[in-house]
Amino acid sequence: MPSQPVPSPVTDSSGQRSSGHRCSIVPPYLLEAMAGGEGDVAQIARRTLQVDATHRQRRAGRPTATPEPGGAATPKPQADDGSGPQRVISDAGGTETLPGTKVRGEGDPVTGDEAADEAYDGLGATWQLYATAYGRDSLDDKGLPLLATVHYGRNYDNAFWDGTQMVFGDGDGQVFNRFTVAVDVIGHELTHGVTELTAGLTYQGQPGALNESVSDVFGSLVRQQLLGQSADEADWLIGAGLFTPQVKGVALRSMKAPGTAYDDPQLGKDPQPATMDGYVETTDDNGGVHINSGIPNHAFYLAATAIGGNAWEKAGQVWYDTLTGSGIAADCDFATFAGLTVAAAEARYAAGSPEATVVRDAWVRVGVLSADGGGSGDSGGSGGSGGQDPTPDPAPTGDSSANAAEVRIRRTGGLAGQVRERTVAVDSLPGADASAWSDLLAGDRLTTLAQQAREGRTIPDSYTYHVACPPQGNEVTLPEHGLPEPVRDLFHRTLAD
Fold it and tell me: How crowded is the C-beta side of 234, counted as CA atoms within 13 Å?
């Protein structure tokens, strides 16, 4: 079959191209934990992290309609007529070139390739939820074609929405299975597209945790509707089936019991809190977006199970009304979002209705709202941040950093909120790297680089570097996707040694 790449830009309500935020399903802290080990899995995880960084760098600042290197632009599919989805599944054939070769279009018979057929079905199930439950015609409510590429990379340990299409890796076979096996993962990633085109929640702090949580909520609802499960029948797991039997865990996250999804010697323990008592104050992972999302996740679970019946019908409707309503802002924090869900429940079901009462109670139980109806008084310090790093960069102290005896580099973020850190003497590094670090630390080069890198947009599921020179006390924060490739590679090598 001839190669038929089919790029399709996402547009917002004004018809302009969206920023194309890239959102992946595997939390970065899982990949980092895997990368720190030995053997094939560690090598695959390190390669996955490297591919993610390269992909984000390639995406930053260019239109999403541009094909990957090696691809050729062809006419994009037209929007559907409202009667059903328009799906196109392509096969990257183990390469990292998008979109790959078209293997199945809308209405075509099964291919016999499990990944391709699972992707086709998962895109359809997501379209079905939004269409039948909320009257939404695809991600943009205008019939946007749903595109996906399978067999991306070699043993690639991730799946992501890049602002244009879904991309699925095959997994390493030891920790992760192929990423098309979990339909809620497909729903999660496509919902990032819905959020981007509606509320546009900033990917930082509490707005970022809400962004992640909304994707978990609707990803779970896609699976529940597909299986015909009521709220009390669902397992409320995100990514069940992704782990191989070798892993001591059942899923990436649990909405029913955050913090219990896995506890594995290699991956560590699921770090998500269920209530504000466990809220994590951190500058890591864009303010802990993948960790603190457990709190609004649990609030939805409590509301949905208390209302009963099919979760997508009432609780899901309230969350959808909130996400797409005019009252939500990009910097919405937990307390504001909670108040908006209560208002949405009251608008749809009446003030004082059982539904509105249950929604309010759910937020009280997780500590976001107080029993008297106000905010809890503990916003976690990161709501309403507008996407800015809560810790400003210290002012440079001249060129003394050029002679720093050591440098501390810390990499955080990604889908799992992973952390990796190393403090190293500059003169102990290989000659070329020692020279590169000396140049980078000279004068205010690092501070200038940080300012330039942070001028770009924030990309969901991307990584952030904190670089410090302990003797001088200098410290800067740099988003990975905004770094020049030589600097990013230097950081990677320094952490890997």
Answer: 31
Residue with the bigger pLDDT between 330 and 389: it is: 330
Phi, psi at 103, each rounded to 5°: -120, -15
Query: Hey, which residues are catalytic here?
Result: 189, 290
- Token pair in block for residue 436: 């590169």
- Of 74-78, 268-272, 441-445, the one with minimum mean pLDDT is 74-78
Around Cβ 260, how many Cβ atoms within 10 Å? 17
> Does residue 90 sit in helix, strand or coil?
strand
- The number of residues in the chain equals 497
Distance CA 279, CA 287 (A): 11
The strand pair at 166-168 and 146-150 is best described as: parallel
- Cβ(339)–Cβ(345) below 8 Å: no
279-291: buried (b, 16+ CB within 10 Å) or exposed (e) per residue?
A: bbebbbbbbbbbb
| H/E segment holding residue 359 | helix 354-365
Structure tokens of 246? 């070798």
State the pTM of this model: 0.77
Could you give the CA distance from residue 371 to residue 377 in angstroms, rounded to a whole number?
12
As a whole number of angstroms, the distance between CA 215 and CA 234 comes to 17
Task: Name the amino acid, one letter, at 132.
Answer: T
SS3 content of the chain, % helix, strand, coil (to 5): 40, 15, 45
419 beta partners: 412
What is the pLDDT at residue 157? 82
Secondary structure of 288-335 in HEC code, one letter for each residue: HHHHHCHHHHHHHHHHHHHHCCCCCCCHHHHHHHHHHCCCCCCCCCHH
H or E stretch covering 128? helix 114-134
Beta strands 263-264 and 268-269 are: antiparallel
| Radius of gyration over every alpha carbon of the chain, rounded to an integer in angstroms | 22
The DSSP secondary structure of 17-52, one letter per residue, reads BP----EESS-HHHHHHHHTS-HHHHHHHHHHHHHH
| Residue of 442, 433, 414, 446 whose CA lies nearest to 489 | 433
Residues 6+ apart with CB under 8 A from 291: 209, 271, 272, 273, 280, 282, 285, 417
pLDDT tens, 256-266?
Answer: 999 999 999 98
Q: Retrieve residue 371's tokens.
A: 């029993």
Q: How far apart are CA 283 and CA 261, in angstroms?
A: 24
Q: 3-state DSSP call for residue 406?
A: strand
* Residue range 38-87, pLDDT digits in tens: 777 887 877 777 776 665 554 443 333 334 444 433 334 455 556 799 99
Cis ω for the linkage preceding 296 (within 30 of 0): no
Query: Distance between CA atoms of 437 and 416, rounded to whole angstroms?
Result: 29
Cα separation, 108 vs 66, whole angstroms: 26
Number of continuous H segments (helices) and E segments (strands) in the chain: 13, 14
